[in-house]
Specification:
This protein is of the alpha/beta class and about 400 residues long. The protein contains eleven helices and 26 strands.
Length: about 400
């Protein structure tokens, strides 16, 4: 437990870092808190970047986690546009670009990730964009003009959210996915099929098995995407969404244990007792799932920030949340709970030919995972099924005449 004379340095001023700093004060930590970020923004959450910020429907204040006065009110030393170059574990120092150093008693790494770049010639074209930061979102906002042609490379969550936002702004949109289905690494086939149908019904050209080969110049100097199978697609601009690379360079340099991220406990403790890692970079054993994994999600960043703060301040810090994700596309709110190693055949509650129904995935007689479409109430109950390890029957789940809440009371 840190005492009132100790200092906590947090590297990374995104959601995980910003929330950890605030929670430390709320949990009673009285020592110096230094939050170091490399952007010129208050700590912010990223989900709105592909939706309301990109579309211009909301201003930046809607995604900020802090108000302009938060740092002063909580006595947090917030340093913006600062790059950390190294960690000196022996001397308990963080080294900054330019040569300055910051001492720490406890150090929290909340460095997040960077976009995975296309390793292709021509991918550095000034009309090829990636989306990770506020600056990226605002740059794309300027491109969203009715009638423009957008090609999205990558049919994962970011690519599909960008496609939906652009389509709603009146652009012609094509999604190119190298795999045989959308979001193949994250969802079962039936959800991939729903996503493809949803986007096609909204006018998006969804192309599967579409491996990009390059970006040939057109006679008029326009932008083109060529596929390995010979097809080509014209574009006014391109957005690439092919995954995230965890920012673990500092951890590697410092000799911390890494494995597809920084190896931690669920509360963020690393192989060094004075260093924590939280959010997208943390690879830990999820107590609920019983296996190791690294989660890139809003909910995980939030949960780990809370647990890390409590652990530093010597409080109970049990972090055993079942992984939860969400995405808004067009008029559909999609929520996912659980990450099964193997997806079972789903139990469908409602009409799966509509945009409002739920899928439950059972292992024996217990819910292992759930996916809902415009059915937030079902998701709320699904979380309780999993938390309580409630036994349920397929027949009861399907029966819409039964309130799901009533099944919680069954023994």
């Amino acid at each position: 437990m840190a005492n009132s004379k100790d200092s906590v340095v947090i590297i990374g001023a995104g959601q995980a870092g910003g929330e950890c700093a605030k929670n430390l004060r709320r949990d009673g930590f009285e020592g110096p808190i230094i939050l170091v970020g490399d952007e010129a923004h208050l700590p912010y959450e990223r989900p709105p970047l592909s939706k309301n910020i990109m579309s211009g429907a909301a201003d930046l204040s809607s995604c900020y986690l802090w108000t302009p006065s938060t740092a002063q009110e909580l006595d947090i030393d917030f340093r913006q546009e600062v790059t950390v170059t190294a960690i000196d574990r022996n001397r308990h120092l963080v080294q900054l670009a330019g040569g300055a150093e910051i001492p720490y008693h406890k150090l929290v790494l909340a460095t997040g990730g960077r976009v995975r770049k296309l390793p292709l010639e021509g991918a550095d074209h000034d009309k090829i964009y990636y989306l990770r930061s506020i600056a990226d979102s605002l740059a794309l906002q300027k491109e969203l003009a009715i009638g423009k042609k957008l090609v999205v490379i990558g049919g994962g969550w970011i690519g599909l959210e960008v496609a939906a936002t652009a389509r709603q702004k009146g652009l012609e949109v094509t999604v190119l996915e190298a795999e045989s289905r959308l979001c193949a690494r994250a969802v079962p086939p039936e959800v991939s099929e729903f996503l493809a149908r949803l986007h096609r019904e909204n006018g998006v050209d969804v192309e599967l098995d579409a491996a990009v080969e390059g970006f040939p110049q057109t006679p008029g100097g326009g932008l083109q995407v060529s596929l390995q199978d010979g097809r080509t697609f014209e574009a006014d601009f391109i957005v690439v969404g092919i995954g995230l690379v965890p920012n673990i360079d500092l951890a590697v340099q410092a000799g911390l244990e890494t494995n597809n991220g920084i190896v931690t406990t669920a509360e963020g403790r690393t192989s060094d007792p004075d260093i924590y890692a939280i959010g997208d970079i943390a690879h830990y054993k999820n107590r609920h799932l019983g296996r190791d994994l690294r989660l890139e999600s809003w909910a995980n960043a939030q949960a780990m920030a809370v647990a890390c703060s409590k652990d530093i301040t010597g409080q109970q810090a049990l972090q055993d949340e079942c992984p939860w994700f969400w995405s808004d596309q067009y008029d559909v709110n999609i929520q996912l709970l659980g990450v099964p190693e193997h997806w079972s055949a789903p139990v469908v509650r409602g009409n799966d030919q509509t945009n409002s129904y739920s899928l439950f995935y059972l292992k024996d007689d217990q819910v292992e995972a759930a996916i809902t479409f415009n059915a937030a109430r079902d998701m709320a109950v699904a979380k309780r099924f999993i938390q309580r390890r409630t036994s349920v029957s397929r027949t009861d789940l399907v029966d819409e005449g039964l309130r799901l809440q009533s099944l919680l009371k069954k023994k």
